[in-house]
Write a structure and sequence with these properties.
3-stranded antiparallel beta sheet, single chain, globular, Arc Repressor Mutant, subunit A, 11% strand, mainly alpha, 88 residues
Length: 88
């Protein structure tokens, strides 16, 4: 499954002339594992537990990119938290 995720990500990124990076691959792999909505902090905490160190800003920026590419979408919440869910 993870290989399919990488292939799909590469195709989407290359079609938009964007780079395929290890950070983007790891973030997307974790998004695919999420069963419900998630936050940037959820993703960042998981990556930190896996000893894959990226800044929280990188996670936020990647989520914004994935949203712009139509891969994920924002989910409104009553408390105003920025939550997302997988769209593709």
């Amino acid at each position: 499954m993870e290989n399919n995720i990488n292939i799909e990500l590469r195709a989407i990124l290359y079609s938009h002339k964007l780079r395929d990076t290890p950070e983007r691959r790891m973030i997307l792999a974790q998004i695919y594992k999420e069963e419900d909505v998630f936050t940037a902090s959820d993703i960042w905490n998981y990556l930190d537990e896996m000893k894959f160190y990226v800044s929280l800003a990188t996670v936020y920026n990647t989520l914004i990119l994935f949203e712009d590419l139509g891969m994920i979408e924002k989910v409104p919440t009553v408390d105003g938290k920025r939550t997302y869910k997988l769209k593709i």
